[in-house]
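Per your request, structure below.
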């Protein structure tokens, strides 16, 4: 006599989106048959790699963008850990500091939650950039620079399928833009992102990067970092009000 057992259904796990930002990390909802689970960076490496792989699958634009440079999508867990544990978190702290110092008239109704989300997630696209480019201990060549510069669009594409506001997504996409519009990627003149939002995330990103050691240079002092950014104020790339808010923040919280 044969006993026929019902075939066990494979557990379906779907990525329902909704990236949630806390004050020092981000969480991603995963929804299975039993309900929602929170995943957290940077401790839960395996789950984050899984979630990011799902994000790549959800948006074919990512593979096609990387395919132009003959790069296969692959998530670098080490980069993810370093980013979430350090630079993105630090950028978020600085961005919120600058935001809170700026006057309401300059902020022009921009919500703090948008700045928080965008600064916490701004470099997520770097997890798809090959580490030999990301960690090259020398100047990048033209081709490598081109690949490196797609990280902001990759971050935007990764998060586009998640429940994230359009305002936040735009700041992630354009966090390397400036007031002269000479950054990257090119702006869509018919659909410009919040200029003040881009300025806040961008100055926080730059200051945070300058205050960290890189494989190709030492960590800069507070004064050195502020002087470099002041040059950009003179070039018309950074708004003086935003720069002054950063100086106030740095004098108080970055001693
Ligand atoms: Fe970036
Ligand atoms: Fe960054």
């Amino acid at each position: 006599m044969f006993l026929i057992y019902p075939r066990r259904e494979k557990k379906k796990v779907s990525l329902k989106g909704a990236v949630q930002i806390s004050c020092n990390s981000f969480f991603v909802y995963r929804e299975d048959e039993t309900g929602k689970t929170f995943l957290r960076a940077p401790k839960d490496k395996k789950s984050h790699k899984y979630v990011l792989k799902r994000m790549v699958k959800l948006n074919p634009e990512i593979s096609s963008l990387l395919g132009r440079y003959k790069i296969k999508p692959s998530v670098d867990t080490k980069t993810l850990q370093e980013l979430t544990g350090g630079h993105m978190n630090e950028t978020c702290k600085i961005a919120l500091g600058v935001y809170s110092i700026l006057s309401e008239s300059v902020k022009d109704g921009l919500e703090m939650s948008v700045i928080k989300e965008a600064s916490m997630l701004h470099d997520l696209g770097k997890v798809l950039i090959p580490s030999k480019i990301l960690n090259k201990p020398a100047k990048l060549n033209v081709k490598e620079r081109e690949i490196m510069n797609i990280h902001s669009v990759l971050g935007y594409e990764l998060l586009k399928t998640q429940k994230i506001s359009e305002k936040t997504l735009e700041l992630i996409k354009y966090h390397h833009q400036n007031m002269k519009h000479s950054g990257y990627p090119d702006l869509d003149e018919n659909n410009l992102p919040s200029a003040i939002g881009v300025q806040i995330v961008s100055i926080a990103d730059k200051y945070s990067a300058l205050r960290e050691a890189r494989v190709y240079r030492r960590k800069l002092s507070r004064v050195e970092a502020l002087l470099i950014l002041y040059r950009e104020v003179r070039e018309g790339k950074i708004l003086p009000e935003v720069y002054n808010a950063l100086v106030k923040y740095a004098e108080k919280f970055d001693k």
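The chain has twelve helices and three strands.

Regards,
D.
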